[in-house]
Amino acid sequence: MKISIITATYNSASTIVETLDSLNEQTYDNIEHIIIDGGSTDNTLELVKAYGKRVSIVISEKDEGIYDALNKGISVATGDIIGILHSDDMFAYIDAVSDIAKVFFDNTVDACYGDLSYISRSGDNRVVRTWIAGDYSESKYKYGWMPPHTTFYMKNALYKKLGGYDTALKIAADYDAMLRYTLVAKINIVYIPKILIYMKVGGVSTRLSQKFESLKDELIVMKRYNLGGVMTFMKKKIYKLPQFFKIVK
């Protein structure tokens, strides 16, 4: 079973080596690592060439943002399963991809997700907060819940059938995609109760400067799927509070 892992980069030299190293260390053998670069002007591509031992596809050209880049990756992926590893994220342990692959030994499983920890960008990789996603339940959506996108892996055939990311949404296209796959298409999704990914705080979706854009996008998505509006958005923020105490489910 081949697993395609897509990494979108743009001037990612400060973080990409850790990302590549974490993938290089994975014990699972059959990995196709795809780099979609937005035309970096730093030495990102040189670092990918030097450290990307498992990189098999590199595309570097101007894009319309991260979701456009991910869509390009999906379009060229040849693996049975597709997942995302952002250019400032890392796998939490060396058997993470193996644990993901094991889930798909059951042919009835369409997708899986797990937990993630947010870590400091200061260099010490200190855990700032942890998101324990918990078992899947549609009832969680009324609180603004979604499977952690960076831990989400789905069959390639379903990406081809259901489509990728809505590039009109600059911040919340992952939220839209998760709802489209799970709430609308009713895919069979399985929860892996392990921290699979370390995500550095301060990425595209965690910068304070992006919060207004995030609010606008998320309200559009909530309305699109009849999940309410401002109240659901507020519930989502409240629902996240226990993450800072590392107990949220």
TrEMBL record:
Q: Give one Pfam family, short name only.
A: Glycos_transf_2
Glycosyltransferase 2-like domain location is 4-154
Residue spans making up a coiled coil are: none
Q: Which PANTHER family match?
A: GLYCOSYLTRANSFERASE (PTHR43685), GLYCOSYLTRANSFERASE 2-LIKE DOMAIN-CONTAINING PROTEIN (PTHR43685:SF2)
Q: What is this protein called?
A: WbyQ
